[in-house]
Structures are given as structure tokens and as C-alpha cells.
Amino acid sequence: MKRKNLLAALAAIVMITAMPAAMVSASSTASGTVRVGTYLNVRSAGNTGAPVIGKLYNGAQITILDTVNGWDKISYGGKTAWISGLYVTSSQAQIAVDAAKSQLGVAYRYGGATPYQALDCSGLTMYAYEKAGISLPHSSAAQATRGWQVSRNDLRPGDLLFFDTDGGSVNVTHCGIYIGNDTFISAQSGAGKVKEATLSSSYWSKAFVTARRIVG
């Protein structure tokens, strides 16, 4: 009798713990916009060898059902299809990018969190995502724990970039927001203002620690 009760209890625990995973999967959709020069191939699977089943053009609005290894799962013509996530920007991420661009030239100030007046690096990214309806802490190290990690090869506009500008390789001391084409925006103490920079430049490439995707 005790064995039956134990098995029943274990079964109940398995059912309860499995339910949230299914709910998360069902609610993980996000809206996005195709950003491409001409068109983007729509494929039957998430890899470049899969058959092309259609095309999406610049500005096309999509719903992202899932993301796997840099490929976005979408609904196309009533069927499941895949497109390269490198050419897709989520709506919230684009709002954050546009907000960061609006601060170009604003003065740098340590601890600054006043748009159009003075910002530090995390103050800029905090403001950018605040405009997108997402709250971030005023600390680059703390922001580096938000969202999920993405590789440099899979960067999309809106991803946050984190750097060690003290000469090390693991301590986060600076952050910026990626805007595409190997370019990011950050509030730089050395430049004394918010400006664009090239991620692959020798300085920033060496200082790079990690990248985090906040939405998408």
C-alpha cells in the first residue's frame, strides 16, 4: 500500500513540474521585422541546405514561434517554416535601438541616467530598453545577467554587448547595444559622449566578454 502511495505521489510531481514547461513553450512567441537588402529565403528547415519554399522582403512583419541555433521558426503559407535570425529584429529590440540612436552625441557622465543630458554606458542601455517597456538595472555587470547569452556570430540589433575595459577578459566594466553591421552604440568615457563603434576593431574585439539577448 505504501509503495502504491509513493508511486502516485511521484506521478503527481512529474505532472506538476511538466506543466510550466509546456506553458512557457506555448507563450514564447515574439513579433519581428525582416531587415534585409533584397529578400530573405524561407526554408523548410533551419539550415542553409534545406529547400527554399518562399521569400520575405524587407519590412515584412512576422511572428517568431521559436529560435534554434540562430534560425527563427515561423508560420508561412499555413505551414511551419524557417528563416535566418540574422535578418530579423524583434519589435521591442528595434524600439531600443532607435532609442539608443536618439542619444548619439549626448555627454558621458559616470552614473549618468538622464536622456539628452548625460549618460554612462549602463544608463544608456537602461534608457533604451525602458523605452521598449523593459526594466534593466543601472549596472553593466548586472545587465550582463539578464536575458540569455548569444554568440558574436548570431548577433542581432538590440543585443547588449559587454566588455572588460580594464585590460582583463572576464570582468564586465562596459556595455553597449548592437545596431547591426558590426556596429554598436555606447556611452564612452574616453570619447566623453555617446557614439558608435566597430565591434571588430582591435580594441573592442579584445575587450569583448559576452553578448546577451534581452528580447526576441
Short account of what is shown:
By secondary structure, the chain is of the alpha+beta class. Helix content is 26%, strand content 35%. The radius of gyration is 21 Å and the shape is elongated.
What can you see in these coordinates?
With 216 residues, the chain is an alpha+beta fold. The protein folds into two domains: 2-89, SH3 Domains (SH3 type barrels, Roll), CATH 2.30.30; 90-213, Alpha-Beta Complex (endopeptidase fold (from Nostoc punctiforme)). It is 26% helix and 35% strand. The chain is built from five helices and 17 strands. The strands form five sheets. A six-stranded antiparallel β-sheet has the order 12-17-13-14-15-16. A three-stranded antiparallel β-sheet has the order 4-1-8. β6 and β7 (79-84) form a beta hairpin. α2 packs across α3. It is elongated, with a radius of gyration of 21 Å. The N and C termini lie far apart (50 Å). Mean pLDDT is 86; it is low at 1-27.
What secondary-structure arrangement, pairings included, does this model have?
Blueprint: H1 2-26, E1 30-34, E2 39-43, E3 52-57, E4 61-64, E5 66-68, E6 71-76, E7 79-84, E8 88-90, H2 91-101, E9 107-108, E10 113-114, E11 118-119, H3 121-131, H4 140-143, E12 148-150, E13 160-163, E14 174-180, E15 183-188, E16 193-198, H5 202-207, E17 208-213
Parallel strand pairs: 9-11
Antiparallel strand pairs: 1-4, 1-8, 2-3, 5-6, 6-7, 10-11, 12-17, 13-14, 13-17, 14-15, 15-16
Helix pairs in contact: 2-3
